[in-house]
Write a structure and sequence with these properties.
alpha/beta, Aldehyde Dehydrogenase, Chain A, domain 1, Aldehyde Dehydrogenase, Chain A, domain 2, 7-stranded mixed sheet, 15 helices, 20 strands, about 20% strand
């Protein structure tokens, strides 16, 4: 059964939505929720119903765990080459159908089509990369100091993995969790965000078409996210949690997972600073700032949330940034020519509006934007704020919207102090021409990634450092290291006696010398 759509949408959108499964995917079967409940998916551009899909229950979650368990042994024993071929076919299917997938993402998430298509191609790369890595799960043979034995280190699948993804990158977040898990030989249960389940269901359907065995990837949309995920984490059969979302929810899930000493990868909130020193190339800064801030409409964990600008260049930078952001075309993400779509839901729009209003009430000045437009949909205009108080709420939280608050600084030490005044430590951006100062500031900023005179490019092959600094960071990222993710396999050590010898030994092959060798 495919997703139920409503009338009034364009034929192209209706076609891609109808092609998506509307049921839960458990054990290779498309099944309704155990209690018959459904989940309504809205079009953020209009606020109207886009589709209706099954909404999983706690009972369905336990059924998904059972299905993953039944598939686990066979998938782990599947030859790495076979797993790689399925991942490669998934990559090609995603690229071939990039336009349809982009339209689907834009319809349920709201992002502009160029951003949506970029996400599809970016997501597909994870399947291609880990297809190549699936055949490179290496073993080690070590000699202990005593020299009497050999230590063989095996890398084996960690086990059933529960993957919880957010709404801002519905394809990318799913792909970068599923691809390494499958390459390593793990079976999975994907719990997508309730705002964007269609992309997850479409992706699972593509993997089925690519030949993925039943039960290896199970998809469980739900409007009972807390109870459903908690039920799975309470299962001793589940060995892995990979979560991307808010820090508050992450803390709760970590506490629950720790009761079973579960392997966890937590990708939590971001609050990236962007520092502009007075010798920076303003043209390059504006170009980079637009990407760092406005990619995905600001709804990205890597988005530049806090702009710290040297006093001598602040007026010019503010004017240029406000002009560039106000020139963006706001509209439905799936309309041609749109460069800024709506926010994902009313709650996100209202949060962004409240943060801006609070900053203005505290003395901030609106350089452009700053008010919620009339009409349907969850739109908020590109907004630039100046004279923002350093302790304003908008500087202490993940905005997830098209708002750039600007704070000025006079010294390098002040800039670094302002940048580090957050509990988050994912990414930072620094712009200046003095390479010595740029490297010095980059090392002083407490963030796992720093883009110096450029935005940071995240790719499957690029290692990402864990949050650095003296205090713990809630943002812990250990993905995308070369090879299979460490969190998807565990190492098993075998101690082998050095006195053991093979039961049979092939005699050396002897051959007659050639005529030339005789000469």
């Amino acid at each position: 059964m495919t997703a139920t759509t409503t009338t009034g949408m364009s034929p192209a959108i209706a076609d891609v939505v109808r092609a998506v499964p509307s049921q839960l995917i458990i054990g290779g079967k498309h099944v309704p929720a155990s209690d018959g409940s459904t989940l309504v998916v809205l079009d953020p551009a209009t606020g109207t119903v886009l589709a209706t899909v099954a909404a999983g229950t706690v009972q369905d979650a336990l059924s998904a765990v059972t299905a993953a368990e039944e598939a686990a042994a066979a998938w782990a024993a599947t030859a790495p080459k076979k797993r790689a071929e399925i991942l490669q076919r998934t990559y090609h299917l995603m690229v071939d159908r990039a336009d349809d997938l982009a339209l689907l993402i834009s319809a349920e998430n709201g992002k502009a089509l160029p951003d949506a298509r970029g996400e599809v191609l970016y997501s597909a790369e994870f399947f291609r990369w880990f297809a190549e890595e699936a055949v490179r799960i290496r073993r080690e043979i070590l000699t202990p100091p005593g020299g009497a034995n050999k230590i063989i280190v095996l890398r084996q699948p960690v086990g059933i993995a529960v993957l919880v993804t957010p709404w801002n990158f519905p394809a990318a977040m799913a792909a970068r969790k599923i691809a390494p898990a499958l390459a390593a030989g793990c079976s999975t249960i994907l719990k997508p965000a309730s705002e964007t389940p269609l992309t997850a269901l479409a992706l699972a359907a593509l993997m089925e078409e690519a030949g993925l065995p039943a039960g290896v990837v199970n998809v469980l949309p739900s409007k009972q996210s807390g109870p459903v995920v908690s039920a799975m984490l309470s299962e001793r059969r589940v060995r892995k949690l990979s979560f991307t979302g808010s820090t508050e929810v992450g803390r709760t899930l970590l506490n629950l997972a720790n009761q079973h000493i579960m392997n966890c990868s937590m990708e939590l909130g971001g609050n990236a600073p962007l520092l502009v020193f007075d010798d920076a190339d303003v043209d390059a800064v504006i170009e980079g700032a637009l990407i760092a801030k406005m990619r995905n409409g600001g709804e990205a964990c890597t988005a530049a949330n806090r702009f710290f600008v040297a006093e001598g260049i602040a007026e010019q930078f503010t004017s240029r940034l406000a002009s560039a952001m106000s020139a963006m075309t706001m509209g439905a993400g799936y309309d041609q020519g749109t460069t800024l779509g709506p926010l994902v839901n009313a709650a996100t729009r209202d949060k962004v509006s409240a943060l801006v209003e609070d900053a203005v009430n505290a003395g901030a000045h609106v350089a452009t934007g700053g008010s919620t437009p009339d009409g349907p949909g969850f739109f908020y205009p590109p907004t630039v704020l100046t004279n923002v108080a350093p302790d304003a709420a908008i500087l202490q939280t993940e905005i997830l919207g098209p708002v750039a608050p600007i704070v000025t600084f006079s010294t390098e030490d002040e800039a670094v102090r302002l940048a580090n005044n957050t509990e988050y430590g994912l990414v930072s951006y620094v712009y200046n021409k003095d390479l010595e100062r740029g490297l010095r500031v980059s090392e002083r900023i407490e963030a796992g990634m720093v883009g110096l005179n450029r935005r940071t490019g995240l790719r499957p092959c690029r290692p990402v450092r864990r949050g650095q600094g003296k205090r713990p960071r809630p943002r812990r990222r250990r993905r995308r290291s070369p090879g299979i993710h460490r969190e998807q396999v565990h190492r098993r050590r075998l101690i082998v006696s050095a006195t053991l010898k093979p039961t049979t030994r092939r005699p050396p092959v002897r051959r007659e010398p050639t005529e030339r060798e005789r000469q």
